[in-house]
């Protein structure tokens, strides 16, 4: 059973199967008593547990000292009063000092252990690695492929190449590449185990062979230098706070003379008619929301500069617009609906936005859907495609 409770800026979840109590969002109380409901929920969760109890704070994007003290004292109290109990705390480097702080608890009791989920955890990862994101990615690729199929060839992808798709998500793009371009080798790398599991399942269900799905960190890949003729990285430079670091890795694994291909958005340029004003307002807010979490969903037109500054030559950039007139307008409406859930609900809640704001924010997505499904309406989502050659 999963118990869940929400407050304005943070939430907690208890997963009985995993004996894990997780905290999400921004945990910055002024006084300890603001956490009393959360601490009671923790007490209630642990009451039926013996053996290892997991406290997971890795999905917190912010945390202050008041919160650390309240949690730390509760954990110490638990292991001291309950002889049958051990506690493991999982932190992340997003809240930089949390690992250091919680590690002190390890020195105070041998029944407490602490580990950092990942030394290379990025601010946006808490959203994009979530399995809830799978639906967003799936519907997006469905719409972009009709454009990209031709563009990829124009940017130099040919059958029989050695190809890598970095930050491959759920792997549906890799499957399409495999079918359309029959590469000699295709490596698809991501840092989300949920997405990779999904990707492997889809490839096996569809009887698609030859894709090597690997777990890894795009900023520090175990892949060797100068391996691939064509390296793709779609919609992903925008989830990192330092995209140039990822680009450096893409450059490294690309063969001299090979090309790196990136796609990125500029969300504030999403548009629609009728109800253009509300749509425009909402997507401008999306850009601000991503910025809050140290991600840049406006990178699209900046891709040319990033590639040139990354040492690439023969840089080529263009854009295309996914619209409701491309095919079934409902497909586009589905994508917008999945953005609404992620942006106006999950992410806005984690930022601590109030209900009035979230309602207005959500309305712009509803209006975009209205425009997409309106018999005389027009709705668009622009995407920038850029590639550059690694010098010989
Ligand atoms: C916006 S999604 C794009 C996915 C896919 N390229 C697509 O277009 O559908 C960003 C992807 O980057 C992955 N990611 C985030 N941080 C990563 C990292 N450090 N290393 C590898 N992948 C990462 C996420 O798990 C997610 O699948």
TrEMBL record:
It comes from the Bacteria. One of its GO terms (molecular function) is methyltransferase activity. One of its GO terms (biological process) is methylation. Keywords: Methyltransferase, Transferase. CDD domains: AdoMet_MTases (cd02440). Residues 165-261 form the Methyltransferase type domain. This is Class I SAM-dependent methyltransferase. It comes from Roseibium sediminicola.
């Amino acid at each position: 059973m999963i118990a869940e409770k929400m407050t304005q800026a943070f939430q907690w979840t208890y997963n009985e199967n995993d004996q894990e109590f997780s905290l999400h969002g921004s945990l910055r109380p002024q006084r300890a008593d603001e956490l009393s409901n959360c601490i009671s929920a923790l007490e209630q969760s642990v009451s039926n547990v013996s053996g290892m109890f997991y406290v997971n704070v890795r999905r917190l994007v912010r945390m202050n000292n008041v919160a650390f003290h309240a949690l730390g004292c509760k954990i110490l109290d638990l292991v001291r009063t309950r002889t049958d109990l051990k506690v493991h705390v999982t932190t992340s480097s997003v809240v930089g000092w949390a690992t250091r702080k919680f590690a002190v608890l390890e020195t105070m009791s041998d029944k407490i252990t602490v580990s950092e989920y990942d030394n290379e955890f990025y601010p946006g990862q808490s959203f994009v690695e979530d399995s809830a994101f799978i639906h967003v990615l799936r519907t997006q690729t469905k719409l972009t492929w009709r454009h990209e199929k031709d563009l990829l060839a124009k940017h130099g992808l040919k059958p029989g190449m050695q190809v890598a798709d970095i930050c491959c998500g759920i792997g549906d793009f890799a499957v399409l590449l495999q079918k359309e371009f029959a590469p000699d080798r295709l490596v698809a790398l991501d840092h989300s185990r949920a997405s990779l599991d999904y990707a492997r399942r889809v490839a096996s269900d569809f009887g698609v062979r030859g894709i090597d799905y690997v777990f890894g960190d795009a900023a520090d890949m175990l892949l060797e230098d100068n391996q691939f003729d064509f390296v793709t990285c779609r919609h992903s430079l925008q989830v990192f706070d330092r995209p140039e670091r990822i680009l450096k890795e893409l450059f490294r694994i690309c063969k001299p003379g090979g090309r790196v291909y990136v796609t990125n958005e500029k969300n504030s340029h999403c548009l629609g008619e009728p109800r253009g004003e509300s749509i425009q307002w909402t997507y401008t807010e999306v850009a601000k929301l991503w910025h809050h979490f140290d991600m840049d969903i406006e990178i699209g037109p900046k891709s040319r500069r990033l590639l040139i500054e990354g040492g690439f030559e023969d840089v080529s950039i263009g854009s295309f617009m996914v619209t409701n007139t491309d095919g079934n307008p409902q497909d586009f409406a589905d994508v917008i609906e999945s953005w609404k859930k992620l942006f106006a609900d999950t992410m806005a809640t984690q930022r601590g936005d109030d209900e009035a704001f979230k309602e207005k924010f959500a309305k712009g997505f509803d209006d975009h859907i209205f425009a997409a499904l309106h018999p005389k309406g027009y709705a668009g989502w622009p995407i920038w495609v850029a590639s550059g050659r690694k010098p010989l």
